[in-house]
Amino acid sequence: MSVTVRVPAKVNVQLAVGAARPDGFHDLANVFLAVGLYDEVTVTESDELRVTCAGADAGQVPLDRTNLAARAALALAERYGREARVHLHIAKDIPVAGGMAGGSADGAAALLACDALWGTGASREELLEICAELGSDVPFSLVGGAALGTGRGEKLTELEVGGTFHWVFALAGRGLSTPAVFREFDRLGEGRDIPEPVASQPLIDALAKGDADALAAAVSNDLQPAALSLFPELADTLAAGRAAGALAALVSGSGPTTAFLARDAESATAVAQILHASGTCRAVRVAAGPVPGAMVV
């Protein structure tokens, strides 16, 4: 018997970052939007815990117990007093190390799939609790839609969205480490007073109204200067997307994927074609959101 769970990528339409906390994390006001690029995690009973991966950039995905899918299976098994004897197969379509929560998505998917396979009957609250232990972005991958993440991003308040937003994502030629981007954020902020992160009310209102122009005026990412400092070529990609007619251009999360908001599906296709021809990125993807979080298929 096996269970397959499909789980979406995310884009951060706002990422406000506070100063480093004593535990090394940062307080965030993180507005997530789930978009229609998906990984699928299939869990099958096995003699031992095993991880395999196929798809785009699969060679960059760790196949040991550091993989978030493996960690999710181990965490659920420990909670319910059983062995995590499963084969986890990840079919990758979310960019790897791209700032779109691909690893976090796999963790949420594996957790939901193991819960279904083992019949543990864990409550949504329990699953979200385990997700939060696994990583800051993992709870949102389970929830999907749109949400405000506070704390280090794991405390979620679901947000209303009044329409569909169309995005183009430009994939970079190499990855960026999230911890490295946060370290650069800290370095760039040395000696400055970093304000407490606060969610943007105009941005939340724009989501609720489904207003792409208002959302474009409100998107922001406090990690973007750090990502650009470590990967200066991303500035060329952002400029190419703006020149192609995107309403807004920003680094997605910790990067290096760049995200471009388009007015509608037709505009997104046009922006994608121009970006692809610009030579400033490795590949482009078009997706819309919001979409639901992890679900058994």
Runs in which pLDDT lies below 50 for 5 or more consecutive residues are: none
User: What is the molecular shape?
Assistant: globular
Distance between the termini: 14 Å
Count of alpha/pi helices: 10
Helix content: 25-40%
Describe the structure.
A hairpin with a 6-residue loop joins strand 9 and strand 10. Helix 1 (68-79) runs parallel beside helix 2 and helix 1 packs across helix 3. The protein is built from ten helices and twelve strands. It has 297 residues and is α+β, with helices and mostly antiparallel strands. The strands form two sheets. Strands 1, 2, 3, 4, 5, 6, 8 and 12 form an eight-stranded mixed β-sheet that branches. The protein has a four-stranded antiparallel β-sheet with strand order 9-10-7-11, sandwiched between helices. The radius of gyration is 19 Å and the shape is globular. The model has no long low-confidence stretch (mean pLDDT 96). The two termini are 14 Å apart.
